[in-house]
Design brief:
Layout lengths: L3 E6 L4 E15 L2 E10 L16 E6 L20 E4 L2 E3 L4 E8 L10 H7 L5 E5 L3 E6 L4 E7 L3 H11 L5 E6 L15 E6 L8 H8 L10 E8 L3 H11 L7 E6 L2
Parallel strand pairs: 10-11, 10-13, 11-12, 13-14
Antiparallel strand pairs: 1-9, 2-3, 2-8, 3-7, 4-5, 4-8, 6-7
The structure holds flavin-adenine dinucleotide (FAD).
Amino acid sequence: MPYSLARQPFPPAVRHLRLAERTVLAVAGADSYVRVRLVEARPGELAGFIAPGGGDHVRVIVGTPVGAPVAVDGSGAPIGEARTETVVDHSVAEGWIDLDVLVHGATGSEAGVIGAWAARAPLGSPAVMMGPKGSVVLSGAPGEVVLAGDDSALPAVRRYLGMLGASITGHLLLETRFDLAALGVVPPVGLRVSILNPDPQRPSAALAEALSALPAPTDPLERFVFACGEQSLVAPARAALTRWGIDIERAVVKGYWKR
Ligand SMILES: Cc1cc2nc3c(=O)[nH]c(=O)nc-3n(C[C@H](O)[C@H](O)[C@H](O)COP(=O)(O)OP(=O)(O)OC[C@H]3O[C@@H](n4cnc5c(N)ncnc54)[C@H](O)[C@@H]3O)c2cc1C
């Protein structure tokens, strides 16, 4: 049955949260994946929050890794560099949301804004969350899928796998050194899995090559494509869609970060 992809905008929302828990899910070299649970700073902050799509994401502004408050401007609006993170799970009734944050760098010298905060900020540290701005919801059952992602896309890939179900067939291309089981990424048996070695000098290059080498679908309307990684993945992924006769509006192709 052909699938459909519906893009649905949501009204703007700003929510005040606090860091309640952190769990190191997996370590790969000097990098780690840390799950942070953010809870409502005030009861009702998460009222109306939904994120039904596999790749639905929020923008988060955090304070410093030592737990300083989020800076605000004269009107009280949060200022600072926001980072975009996939919604892993949430409960409005219980007032929490989970995000899985890729942390670069060894303990004590973590890089990045949200990475260092996720690794080190004291429990109770504040965060401001904006969005989701909208949702991309896949309905129906695609005949086959191509899911391609780097480390930063693993949370979204995991959500898509959960939504697509155990009987899905197709290709799973992952450029990662992480232990997938530790991250809860369990590919169904019908997926042909390629684990590609990341090259820090050419992030997402292996993904782009593997994606470009895949055969064209028998029926372009039956192939759902998710391809997200470093920005340089976008052009080759779009070119593959064109070659395969797949409308970009029926796929999810995005640069999740820029080298
Ligand atoms: C729609 C969307 C969903 C996303 N979902 C997630 C998610 O669920 N989890 C997640 O961790 N990230 C996700 N990202 C990426 C995220 O926005 C940040 O880029 C990431 O969290 C790094 O932020 P930072 O502040 O820790 O590091 P930054 O300050 O952005 O970067 C610090 C250093 O690390 C390098 N770097 C950043 N990202 C990577 C990477 N992936 N691989 C190698 N080097 C890198 C930078 O080039 C820089 O040198 C998503 C992005 C988008 C657009």
